[in-house]
Amino acid sequence: MKITLNNTEETFEKDRMTISELLELSKFSYKLLIVKVNGKLIKKDAYEDTIVKNGDDVMVLHLVTGG
Amino acid sequence: MTFEEIKIKLKKYTVGIAGAGGLGSNCAVALARVGIGNLIVADFDVVDETNLNRQYFFHDQLGKKKVRALKENIERINPNINVIIHDIKLNENNIVDIYKDCDIIVEAFDLAEMKQMIIETCMTKFPDKPMIIGSGMAGWGKSNEIKCKKSGNLYICGDERSETSAQNPPLAPRVSIVANMQANTVLEILLNNLKR
Asked: Chain B partners of A58 at a C-beta cutoff of 8 Å?
């Protein structure tokens, strides 16, 4: 499948996967993230149940301490 | 647009700033200099000597509440700005009340957990309000790694990587770059896009 990940088109072998699988495959290892799928916020407790499929627009933002 | 035209336009807007530390104090000062009409700033902390390496406060303000010190400093720069301050620790509930009338919200917290809390709260309660986050600014150098990323109404400024630690403290140059990038994003939204 092809998805837009952080404004870049990316191709994955699988046809669909959960947010958790996508984060692991794409090596997003930071503890605190903000994940949006097609503009909708996905909270952490829904990463296992939310499916990403062909054509989806996924945004992953890293939150790190400091300010 | 001339600066006179910019000032007239900016005067009618209200920007909420969540936190008055390194990001919040510097961002508020930049917005006050260009003439944003109203600023709403909340923070519970007092000015400490360890803050002076990056935050817009002065040595003679040590021990003062940050929101009061910031209001004083802004009044010295531009007395025409209406600065509304809240000496309070922000949480899921009071954020909604304090920032409901803002045109834009600037996230200016220190801890990543707090950043997540305000993003989740505002995206749920104010899905149409633009919000500008600061994430990743500790240390020095690597200016070109600091960027601004947009996702719908959410803007994220920083390198999304450089976390504060004992060996990688937050310092004035990089923190100010991000704070001013947040202020610059506010202007971009207000002057180019936001219809009112």
From this structure: none
Nearest CA-CA partner of B32 in B81, B68, B73: B81
The whole-model pTM stands at 0.93
Optimal mutation site among A6, A44, A61, interface B, most CBs of chain B within 10 A: A61
**Alpha carbon separation from A61 to A13, A15, A58, B85 (Å, rounded):** 23, 23, 10, 29
Which domains, and CATH codes, for chain B? Answer: 3-192 (3.40.50.720)
Cβ contacts of A6 on chain B, cutoff 8 Å = 149
pLDDT digits (tens, 9 = 90+) for B92-135: 999 999 999 999 999 999 999 999 999 999 999 999 999 999 99
ipTM of model over 0.95: no
What is the model's pLDDT at position A30?
79
